[in-house]
Amino acid sequence: MKDSEVFLIQAENEELKKELQDAKKRSLSLLAQVKQLQQENQSLKEELEELRHNGTKREKSKSWLDRYQKVSDLARAGVTPKEGMRMLNMPSTTYFRYLKLYRESIKEQDD
Prior knowledge:
Blueprint: H1 3-76, H2 81-88, H3 92-110
Helix pairs in contact: 1-3, 2-3
């Protein structure tokens, strides 16, 4: 083999090594980006789940407040619990739970 051929082979070998190193750097960079995107994706999934959960809480909260308001209005009007349960078609445990909260709020206002 001639010196010029050896030189060309060595130059080609060095060029291939450099390309390989560049490819490794790019792949490491891409892997880091993938990991970052996976973490961001997980964070967004958790945020979405929390928003879904809070939305359900708000809906329940609104209906809860509506029922509480009805019970407290009836209590202020002097309607008996038995009549209030009948009017609202509400189970006694639910009605008395709201009534208890209403009476506690009245007691706190008096104190």
